[in-house]
Amino acid sequence: MPSWKTVTLLLAAIISISAGTAMATDYKLNPFTLTYEGAITKNEAGKVNIHPVNYDLNGLKIAANVYTPANYNPENSYPAVVVAHPNGGVKEQTSGLHAQRLAELGYITIAMDAAYQGGSGGEPRSTDKPQFRIEDIHGAADFITRYPGVDATRLGLLGICGGGGYSLSAAKSDKRFKAVATLSMFNSGRVRRNGYMDSQMSTIQKRLQQASDARAQEAVGGKILYSGDADMTDAQIAALPFELYRQGYEYYWRTHAHPNSTFKYTTSSLLDLMRWDATDQIELIEQPLLMIAGSKADSLYMTLDAFAKATGAKDKELFKIDGATHIETYWVPKYVDATIGKLTEFFGRTLK
């Protein structure tokens, strides 16, 4: 007799299919372990190809996928885009989807796993510190601008969710990025400090103490403590107070699950996260800026806040995807199409 967990997953799949939801790819059935619909299954001449790569970043091995356009010729000159993944995400999920779609438009793209996460190196695992995530983006620029055929003067940046907040921070100083776009931007510092939708303001000092204690425990060789990790039932997921978290658990643990993807992060990371903010000195961004978010996303407040503070970007645009929630922008075909349509115009104009 099947277990309750198997039955629950089967029921969830049946409900998803009956609702007309587009099915994701099972990572186990894809040779590149990609989870998104329409993912590449083999490299073919004349089509977009995927190239798993590794490179060194400050002594750590970084795992990434490079996507090259149809009829790619290393002797030609191509614009390139770095794509930074969400918190909890890996390159095989939405960042890979958007990297593949941009490659279809003629860009050489790179979707990398953050250091300490996914297929990349670094211990303790699931360390999530802003300075590391920002360095990941600088490192991806180092690598992709030396890739055969890439025109380093036409480099763009797309950050999704947490990767969007870190992309804003990286672009403040890294002027190799000639155009910056975010999708469903998540300001990790603000959320870890204040709680989602600023719902935990009263417990800031308590959580800082917990993070301090966790670091002290690590320093003497004690057990690594983690936050944000839970194996929830469907009923528990449905009871979560915020839509982002409800749909996020379904995305990461059900429909687009990947073994390298996890919500958890070391509790000691909060020492760095809680004193950081994606909008600090955001006026340093002078490059063209496009910020995309779902009109129904409960995370929209973070995009609106950052957009208003980005006063240094004279060429900037806020684009709302009508009817989309935060997680839906990751994978729902019509919303992905809307994003790609906007990026086609934006990068086509700014990286020409």
How many domains? 1
Q: What is the terminal-to-terminal distance?
A: 60 Å
Number of beta-strand segments: 10
Query: Any idea of the CATH class?
Result: Alpha Beta
Strand fraction: 15-25%
- Quaternary state reads single chain
The CATH fourth-level homologous superfamily:
Alpha/Beta hydrolase fold, catalytic domain
Give the strand order, joined by hyphens, for the main sheet.
Answer: 1-2-4-3-5-6-9-10
Structural category is: alpha/beta
Broad shape = globular
- Give me the Rg, rounded: 20 Å
Helix content: 25-40%
Mean pLDDT: 92
Enumerate the spans where pLDDT stays under 50 for 5 or more consecutive residues.
Answer: 1-22
CATH architecture: 3-Layer(aba) Sandwich
SSE ordering? HEEEHEHEHEHHEHHEHEHEHH
Helical segment tally?
12
Question: Remind me, CATH topology?
Answer: Rossmann fold
Largest sheet: 8 strands, mixed
Describe what you observe in this structure.
There is one protein chain. By secondary structure, the protein is α/β, with parallel strands linked by helices. It has one domain (4-350): Alpha/Beta hydrolase fold, catalytic domain (Rossmann fold, 3-Layer(aba) Sandwich). The protein is 37% helix and 18% strand. The protein contains 12 helices and 10 strands. The strands form 2 sheets. Strands 1-2-4-3-5-6-9-10 form an 8-stranded mixed beta sheet, with helices on both faces. Strands 7-8 form a two-stranded antiparallel sheet. β1 (49-57) and β2 (60-68) form a beta hairpin. α3 (130-144) crosses α4 (162-173). The longest helix has 18 residues, at 333-350. The protein is globular, with a radius of gyration of 20 Å. The N and C termini lie far apart (60 Å).
